[in-house]
UniProtKB/TrEMBL annotation:
<keyword id="KW-0540">Nuclease</keyword>
<keyword id="KW-0269">Exonuclease</keyword>
<keyword id="KW-1133">Transmembrane helix</keyword>
<dbReference type="InterPro" id="IPR036691">
    <property type="entry name" value="Endo/exonu/phosph_ase_sf"/>
</dbReference>
<protein>
    <submittedName>
        <fullName>Endonuclease/exonuclease/phosphatase (EEP) superfamily protein YafD</fullName>
    </submittedName>
</protein>
<dbReference type="Pfam" id="PF03372">
    <property type="entry name" value="Exo_endo_phos"/>
</dbReference>
<keyword id="KW-0378">Hydrolase</keyword>
<dbReference type="GO" id="GO:0004527">
    <property type="term" value="F:exonuclease activity"/>
</dbReference>
<dbReference type="InterPro" id="IPR005135">
    <property type="entry name" value="Endo/exonuclease/phosphatase"/>
</dbReference>
<feature type="transmembrane region" description="Helical">
    <location>
        <begin position="5"/>
        <end position="23"/>
    </location>
</feature>
<feature type="transmembrane region" description="Helical">
    <location>
        <begin position="70"/>
        <end position="88"/>
    </location>
</feature>
<keyword id="KW-0255">Endonuclease</keyword>
<feature type="transmembrane region" description="Helical">
    <location>
        <begin position="43"/>
        <end position="63"/>
    </location>
</feature>
<feature type="domain" description="Endonuclease/exonuclease/phosphatase">
    <location>
        <begin position="109"/>
        <end position="329"/>
    </location>
</feature>
<keyword id="KW-0472">Membrane</keyword>
<dbReference type="GO" id="GO:0004519">
    <property type="term" value="F:endonuclease activity"/>
</dbReference>
<keyword id="KW-0812">Transmembrane</keyword>
């Protein structure tokens, strides 16, 4: 009797834990310790759950005395995997089809370079290949950004360079943005605050009707940085407002950490502030951008492009061909049309 009671307690406890991990926003726990990290890798935890369910099922066949208990745990693991799969399917497992670029389209590229790891030539090669007009490079020094701009200028793609650094000890504490000269000049807005540990940058247009460009890099939700991470996401949520806004970078956050921007748009209406996520809008919201050592569908989609509602997103891709370039992040490119 006592053994059955404890078995029931364990089953109920496991069910509750898996429900929180699978649907954290139901309980307001998406930013809670452990949950914040696990929910970022839904696909990976689903694979682990399926493997656990198979193992438990096989053991249950051999151990008659614990068959019901183990079968119940196996069933919970399978249900957990199915719920995660359903959630990820609504976000999109990837649609990399890009139509021929229209004259009115702009290309937005973001890549966390892990402290300039790919090198200026490789980054410039990507910018030129994608004909990028806006390039957000977290963990990229001003020196490397200038070298990149010199290379793109030689390829008839001149770009302005804007960089910010919290210090010059670690390149991870730098963020650089390159903007096509065709989009006009910008100035850094240092009146709106910043993220706490790693720098973000807000560029305001000097010309009327120009684009506001925000390059962001919230700190990762490590156990010792959770409060700073939450503060960073609140800052991001407040900064993306108004018209003609493009925000991109390494957000260290997945759709589970987004806010509701447009309830009528269902999943695609998730974002930050007034801005919507290009990945969710194009069916690429479940494609992992970190780490490169994992297949895209098992990784965490934490690198993003967001746009204000007046901007249309015509396509987005997570680029896997640069997995061996040195960074542990994948580049993300999106095409947009201004309203």
């Amino acid at each position: 009797m006592i053994r059955r009671f404890f078995a029931a307690v364990i089953v109920v406890g496991v069910a509750a834990a898996l429900l929180v991990i699978a649907w954290p926003n139901l309980f307001g726990l998406a930013e809670a310790p452990v949950v914040a990290q696990l929910v970022s890798v839904r696909a990976l935890t689903s694979v682990i759950a399926v493997a656990a369910a198979i193992t438990l099922g096989l053991v249950a066949l051999l151990w008659a005395g614990a068959r019901r208990f183990l079968a119940a745990l196996a069933l919970l693991a399978m249900l957990f995997a199915l719920v995660n799969g359903a959630v990820l399917s609504t976000r999109g497992f990837g649609d990399e089809s890009f139509p021929t670029r229209a004259p009115a389209e702009l290309s937005v590229l973001t890549w966390n370079t892990l402290g300039d790891a790919p090198g200026a030539e490789r980054i410039a090669e990507l910018i030129i290949a994608e004909q990028a007009d806006i390039v957000v490079l977290p963990e990229t020094s001003q020196e490397t950004a200038i070298a990149i701009a010199e290379l793109t200028r030689e390829a008839d793609r001149p770009m302005w360079v804007y960089s910010i650094a919290f210090d010059y000890v670690a390149k991870a504490r730098s963020t650089s943005v390159l903007v096509s000269v065709e989009l006009g000049r910008h100035e850094v807005d240092d009146t709106v605050g910043n993220t706490t540990v790693l720098p973000s940058i807000v560029l305001r247009p000097l010309d009327p009707g120009g684009l506001t460009i925000v390059g962001v890099h919230p700190v990762a939700p490590l156990p010792g940085e959770l409060e700073n991470w939450r503060a960073d996401l609140r800052w991001v949520d407040g900064i993306c407002a108004g018209e003609n806004v493009v925000m991109a970078g390494d957000f260290n956050a997945t759709a589970d950490h987004f806010r509701i921007v447009d309830p009528s748009a269902a999943v695609a209406g998730l974002g930050f502030g007034e801005c919507q996520n290009a990945g969710l809008l194009t069916g690429n919201g479940a494609v992992g951008t970190w780490p490169t050592r994992l297949p895209p569908l098992l990784g965490a989609p934490i690198d993003h492009v967001f746009v204000s509602p007046d901007i249309a997103v015509t396509g987005m891709r997570v680029l896997t061909e640069y997995d061996g370039a040195g960074s542990d992040h994948r580049p993300v490119v999106a095409r947009i049309i201004l309203g």
